Amino acid sequence: MARRRCICLLLVLASGCKTIPEDAYGIDRIRFNGMEQLDPEALRACLASQERDRVTFAFGTSADPSCGVPPFDGKRVSFDLWRKLRKGWPTLDSAVFDRDVQRIERWYRARGYYDAAVVSTEFDPPAAANDDRIIVAPGGQAPCDREGADEGCRLGILIEIEEGQPVLVRSIEVSGHENWESENRKKLEDAIEVEVDKPFDESIYERSKRAIRRQLKEASYACGNVSGRVEIDRETNEASVELFVETGPSCRLGDITVTGIGSQPADTILDVADLKTGDVFRLNDIADAQRAVYALGALASVDVTSTPRRDEEEQCTGVVDVNIAVEPGRNIRWGIGAGVQSGAIATLTLEQDTRISDVHLFGLFEHRNLGGFRRLRIEDRPKIVATDPFFRFRRGFIFGNELRVEYRRPAFLEPRTTSAIQFRHDWGPDPFELFRRHDLQIRGSLSRPFFDGRLLLVGALNYDTYLLVDRDPRYPRSYQVVFFDQRLVVDLRDDSRSPRAGFFFQVGSQQSPAKLRRSWQYVRVTPEVRGFAPLPLSSTLAFRFGMGAMFIFSRDRNRLDLVGQALGPQNYRLRSGGPTSHRGFFGGFLGDPGSIDSLNREGFDARNDGGLRRWEAGIEWRLPVTQSFATALFMDFGDVNRGEVWRFNYIRAAAGFGFRYQTPVGPIRLDFGFLIPKWQVVGGPPPPNAFNIFRFIRGGVPGAFHFTIGEAY
């Protein structure tokens, strides 16, 4: 049976293999010899003659570069694994190849190598140099070894290149912006990517001019332009670059119109766009208006365009008209489906790592425009929750259901402020301790972005009532809590999903001032900072550091359990461990297992109650392998404890590796974290661990693994 399966598999693979036409040469390889300064893959992207596709691991710059798009000198380490069986063979065309030889020399000149030349080309088999078709005389033999009886021949091409010396930029002069303020002058000059003592590259030169035009528009010069002149001295291999800036008049906004909306009122769109006639024209304001209008959610497309007015002599008048062209989308959206959730849970206030995993159905109804682009969304998720994080349902499972309702109104009180009222009812297992409970949350919030979305402020009032279904002295007691919460986010990353450079800071705060039955008065603060730096081979170094503190001022000692009195509400205690915090532990299990033995269970049914102080740190090196696949090495540190001071000597170090696969919704991530036994507590023995420690390599190495979507930070 196994043999028949293997034969069937080979037949399927063979049927997917493409063959070389009988009278043609199939290009298997094109190699470049003599390319020392520039990237062969960047050159290959501009050629019409291509070799057969292969699956390649390429550590370095983009594995699929585009023709004429920097970088051109990227360094890479690549390994070819196998040919793509279902891809056809590219064949040799002599006329096309001759033009490719000319393209190579022109490509080198565009990179600043004016003396570069193709000195020779070699074909294997040599007969392909004379004719791109396999000519066989009657009764004779082919001048090459055919791949099969009715196939052509495999061809390898070697192109010898002599690069020569590049033309280096000797000087860069910019004129026409002398009267600008120093800050704006610096921004314009920083937009120039051409560098002194670097090869003069036409693509980078043109890209610099486009960047200057953007800076002119950002500085209110909508009609501004830039021209340039480059003088090249071939004897000294030096280039002098001159850029001439023509600003034109400073511009202001004229008519603001909305098209495509049909019979619906455009007032909300104009309010959210926040563009006013007479305001100074700035390109970022136009882009910000487009993002804000599209974020309304009820429009299929949004295109905000600016058109400078010109007089009869085609001179710029200093007035710019703006049109917001929209295409309405579907107002009503509904759907049903199924999904899996593992490693994290989101309430109305927090996103936390957790131990539970579930399989769920979901039903969704959403009305995206109740009038004024007000939105109503209702989602229900019946679920089956596994009692351990490995989806081993034979160890037990618990049914649950989560219902969410959200009403959102844009342009509340002022153009860019959004108000929301949210309701959440979660019946089922607690995400940290698995006993059944009702969790009812109501939240009213206001949010406002600033500075092109780089700064976000959120403020809210929350009510949470927590009612136990399972009665056991080991479990927390029911409670209620009313609290304010605020969040400040500063996001300076280049990409929010997979950042390579930039900075991110956020701080969250909660205050519960009311003295209620079964409740607390407390303050909770959680600041966090992240940084990202690009490294060679297109890799990224990422780091994070976060802290947390819970200050409890009063509690209902008559109606709350002992652990709850000490640590606060079950939903809002400080916890760590999991795929977005400390990957040496499963969700929520970093810290002391518990000091009250009677309240703590063991094995896969163990619990961890959290603490009052938390600190976390991590560093990660992300290395792309292909366009979609990447690897990572990381170290995580941190501690959670029940005292009133942070224990920075409890470093709880873990090292590990992981894999990422890029998707439209973010990277799918699999991480393995291993605790380092001697790096747990400085100057002391390692503390005991709860069930979450998974033993790798026949039980020898403690740690955890995590499968989720999105980067760790």
Q: CATH class of the largest domain, please? A: Mainly Beta
What are the segments in which pLDDT stays under 50 over at least 5 consecutive residues?
1-16, 595-605
Q: What is the overall silhouette? A: globular
User: What is the CA-based Rg, rounded?
Assistant: 32 Å
Beta-strand content estimate: 35-45%
User: CATH homologous superfamily of the largest domain?
Assistant: membrane protein fhac: a member of the omp85/tpsb transporter family
Give the second-level CATH assignment, the architecture of the largest domain: Beta Barrel
- Main sheet attributes: strand count, strand direction, barrel closure: 17 strands, antiparallel
Which structural class do you get from the secondary structure elements?
mainly beta
What's the count of strands? 28
Helix content: 10-25%
In the CATH scheme, what's the topology name of the largest domain? Answer: Porin
Structure annotation, total helices: 8
Number of spatially distinct domains: 4
Distance between the termini: 48 Å
Mean pLDDT: 85
In short:
This protein has 713 residues and is mainly beta.
Notes on the protein architecture:
This protein is mainly β and 713 residues long. The protein folds into four domains: 18-162, Ubiquitin-like (UB roll), CATH 3.10.20.310; 168-246, Ubiquitin-like (UB roll) (Roll), CATH 3.10.20.310; 252-328, membrane protein fhac (Ubiquitin-like (UB roll)); 332-709, Porin (Beta Barrel), CATH 2.40.160.50. It is 12% helix and 43% strand. It has eight helices and 28 strands. The strands form five sheets. The chain has a 17-stranded antiparallel β-sheet. A three-stranded mixed β-sheet has the order 1-5-4. A three-stranded mixed β-sheet has the order 6-8-7, with helices on one face. Helix 4 packs antiparallel against helix 5 (202-218). The protein is globular and about 100 Å long.
